[in-house]
Specification:
2 strands, mainly alpha, single chain, 11 helices, two-stranded antiparallel sheet
Length: 273
């Protein structure tokens, strides 16, 4: 029985190698263009048990293309096809890890549109590997860094912080990004929960300091609401709150910067030069 299985395996491996070599040769000859592959549904229906092989061949095609892109080529010229191909590859064979990292490397930084495309592709990885914290971390990073959506990033990090073996860093990131998005009360609640759950004295002190800072910012938010109740408008800048509604604006040292985007007060980490 084993000998029969080995005999059947040999031609399969041979075909795999031949297709691999032919695909590599074709990709080198036509490296200047990247063709969109058929939809995952079509490929799954037509390739059957060979769907893994087809996914890997398609990935190789895209990888060879990327290796031959001339310096100075505008990524916008090939990113739509690349995003399409990675989405079909990962839908066809979700357990294939490499396309997730390639989509993050080659798509996320191109534009907000392709940062969303990268997150859509990473979402497939999150379903395929529900306990993997890397893919949701990359999603949260894209939401914050490329899409300027700190609250959405906070939700992703908060969800990821509940995964087995998730580091405390994720919950802390969720709290900080809640504040950056103006959800100061949510950030305070999250930090208080983290304060109660740790025995690390250094971490406790840091969380307590941040809770106090968040409360100061929340007082500024309340002052802005009081200003609106009196003047029927929000202040153009937070300086308008002084001295009628606040004696002075709080200082956060090097830890945070107070932000104002009416009607929301937030806290963000200062930009490091």
């Amino acid at each position: 029985m084993r000998r029969m299985r080995d005999l059947l395996l040999l031609p399969t491996v041979t075909v795999y190698c031949m297709v691999f070599l032919m695909q590599e040769k074709l990709c080198k000859e036509f490296v200047s263009t990247l063709q969109p592959i058929p939809s995952a549904q079509f490929l799954l229906a037509t390739t059957g048990y060979l769907h893994q092989l087809v996914a890997e061949i398609s990935f190789i095609q895209s990888s060879v293309f990327l290796g031959g892109v001339k310096p100075g080529t505008d990524p916008q010229s090939y990113s739509p096809t690349l995003a399409h191909n990675y989405r079909q590859i990962t839908s066809l064979y979700p357990a294939f890890n490499d396309p997730y990292f390639y989509s993050q490397s080659y798509l996320a930084s191109v534009s907000p549109e392709f940062a969303r495309s990268a997150n859509d592709i990473l979402a497939i990885g999150c379903k395929a590997y529900p306990e993997n914290i890397i893919y949701p971390f990359l999603q949260g990073f894209n939401l914050f860094s490329y899409l300027d959506e700190p609250l959405e990033a906070s939700k992703v990090f908060q969800k990821a912080s509940l995964l087995p073996k998730a580091p405390p860093m994720l919950a802390h990131l969720a709290s900080i990004l809640s504040a950056a998005g103006g959800q100061l009360e949510a950030g305070i609640i999250s930090l208080q929960a983290m304060l109660r759950s740790t025995d690390d004295e250094e971490a406790k002190n840091r969380y307590q300091e941040e809770i106090e800072m968040f409360k100061k910012a929340l007082n500024v938010q309340k002052a802005a609401e009081a200003f609106h109740a009196v003047h029927q408008r929000y202040p153009g800048s937070l300086n308008e709150l002084v001295p009628e509604f606040l004696e002075s604006l709080p200082s956060f040292g090097e830890a945070f910067v107070l932000t104002w985007k009416a009607p929301v007060v937030g806290l963000k980490r200062p930009t490091r030069k």
